[in-house]
């Protein structure tokens, strides 16, 4: 994901939902999706092109389920190619406030993943493994099956002004997998977003020691080309 650096056209549905309030494009992704903030971030609307619209349906279902247990954005409405949610307090872990304080950010990310993994019930989860993990056997045996975020990169953790974990966003690939699926990618994403090495801080906040075999396995799955 990147922050738009040029003006982005506001779709009609976003304009209608804003009801005259300020609209700001805050994120773009590699699929052509754009996230718009309404007002000062009290609400958000994610929009995707038609060929990827089903991903927002998947996310809405997961937000409603996960929201029974953890802090994720409440769904306010949805339609083909758009998802309207309420905002959560806090700033993204890649906000300049936190890129200037990467150790605090890394620890909040680790704390947040542990809170998610502890709170979401594996036995009641209706979702399979994240798409990039898949269900094929291979690799090391799971250390601990949890309900994973599925896209645990740094921007998807929200942090309060005092450095505490607040909540998670972008859980459209949430599903059951080994906890190292999340931890491998979360630690890798630190290198993309912060100077220095803060992997140890994240893992310490989560409460585990580094597992090189599982980290290598799940990073390999993440980086593997999509079939087709």
What is the element layout, followed by pairings?
Blueprint: H1 12-18, E1 23-28, E2 34-38, E3 43-47, H2 54-66, E4 75-79, E5 82-86, E6 91-92, H3 96-99, H4 102-119, E7 145-148, E8 157-159, E9 165-168, E10 175-178, H5 179-193, H6 199-206, H7 212-223
Helix pairs in contact: 4-5, 4-6, 5-7
Short synopsis of the structure:
Helix content is 34%, strand content 19%. By secondary structure, the protein is an alpha+beta fold.
Write up this protein.
- With 228 residues, this protein is an alpha+beta fold.
- The protein is built from 7 helices and 10 strands.
- It has 2 domains: 75 residues, 2-Layer Sandwich (Phosphorylase Kinase, domain 1); 133 residues, Aminoglycoside 3'-phosphotransferase, Chain: A, domain 2.
- Helix content is 34%, strand content 19%.
- It has a 5-stranded antiparallel beta sheet, sandwiched between helices.
- Helix 4 packs antiparallel against helix 5 and helix 5 packs across helix 7.
- The two termini are 23 Å apart.
Mean pLDDT: 94
Q: What's the total number of strands? A: 10
> Roughly how much helix do the residues carry, as a percent range?
25-40%
Q: Could you say what the CATH architecture of the largest domain is?
A: Alpha-Beta Complex
Radius of gyration: 17 Å
Strand order of the largest sheet: 1-2-3-5-4
Q: Approximately how much beta-strand content do the residues carry?
A: 15-25%
Distance from first to last alpha carbon: 23 Å
How many independent structural domains? Answer: 2
